[in-house]
Amino acid sequence: MRMTIERPGLIVADGWKDYQLLDSGLGMKHEKWGPYTLVRPDPQIIWPRTGGNGRWENWDGFYHRSETGGGKWEFRQKLPDNWTINYGTLKFKIHPTSFKHTGLFPEQAVNWDWFTKKIKAAKATGREVSVLNLFGYTGAASVAAAAAGASVCHVDAAEGMVKWCKENAALSGLADAPVRYITDDCLKFVRREIKRGRKYDAIIMDPPTYGRGTTGEMWKLEDHLWELLSECKQLLSDRPVFFLINAYTARLSPTVVVNLLASLMSGAGGHLTGGEVGLPIQRDKKILPCGIFGRWSAEE
Q1: Can you tell me the distance from the alpha carbon of 150 to that of 77, in angstroms, rounded to the nearest whole number?
Q2: pLDDT of the residue at 214
């Protein structure tokens, strides 16, 4: 079967109401997360700040980088330990962590929208859809897939992230949805699933540039991604619905991810595309690039 391949492009997550990227410049971004405004570093922001006196005055939390690595938050008022924001019917817990993140990557909403349509279209034909989410982090993609009607297996090596996924599912009214929560090294888990003969109709993965498994195994994206993809191919059902790869490394272009998926899904037909995901910057309408993706689907 012939596969159609679309040139990589840029997709902007502009459907948010509870999140806004207000401004950017000089290595920092000024964001609105529901009722609270945070300032955080971003290595992609090498352009100057366009307004004000070189700093933002309106913020509740400011993450200061340390010259020795890491950093810490400064809060102007005592914020709650966590709060929630909505994306449509989905609800997510936001918590500023010690490593600058909040537990959610809002640019990924474009991928949630995409695979939600794929899952619903497959279910409209009478199919049940099972989704495997690897390196699932706090589970936004798992929750979105479950909300679309899929059964989901959520896998992450960090127990705290898996617990956070459960919380997000409950917040979205999906506490009783068919979601398996697994704390495990992703490659080891995939190999065990192959031995068990389990199959999935769709796979989502968000592999880190570097990482460690549950027993200290080293992961390096360039060295291990193809190995993982090859193993995952064996988990796909006879009629796969989609395969989605996200990545946050500046070392790879979207074309590399497209090429990987083209090799992986050779002979399967379908439609393949890739590109960057980004967020609109409210002040000056720039776009902040936030990562790359590759998408294969059985139907365009």
Answers
A1: 41
A2: 59
pLDDT tens column, 228-273: 999 999 999 999 999 999 998 767 899 999 999 999 999 999 999 9
Dist. CA 119–CA 43, nearest whole Å: 34
Longest dimension (CA), the chain: 61
Higher-confidence residue of 55 and 96: namely 96
Q: Which two tokens stand for residue 269?
A: 């037909």
pTM of this prediction exceeds 0.85 = yes
Q: How many residues make up the chain in this entry?
A: 300
Residue among 228, 244, 135 at smallest CA distance from 187: 228
Which amino acid, one-letter code, is at 165? C
Q: Tokens 């992986």 appear where?
A: 264
CA distance 172 to 166: 10
Instruction: Give the mean pLDDT of 34-59.
Output: 89
- Strands annotated E in 166-256: 179-183, 202-205, 210-212, 218-220, 242-247
* Under 8 Å between Cβ of 6 and 268: no
Other beta carbons within 10 angstroms of residue 180's beta carbon come to: 13
Sign of CA dihedral 141, 146, 147, 148: positive
